[in-house]
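Section 5: illustrative case.
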């Protein structure tokens, strides 16, 4: 997965990772029954 270059070094990136990405990953894991390993991102706590 790649983030849009326009948000990589902005506060929008942090907000996206902390507020949206975790939920998207959870839904993906539930839908596909795959365990996603996340590296290099802030910790997400549901």
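Designed sequence:
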């Amino acid at each position: 997965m790649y983030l849009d270059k326009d948000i990589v070094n902005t506060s929008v990136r942090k907000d996206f990772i902390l507020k949206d990405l975790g939920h998207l990953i959870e839904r993906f894991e539930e839908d596909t029954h795959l365990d996603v390993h996340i590296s290099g991102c802030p910790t997400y706590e549901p």
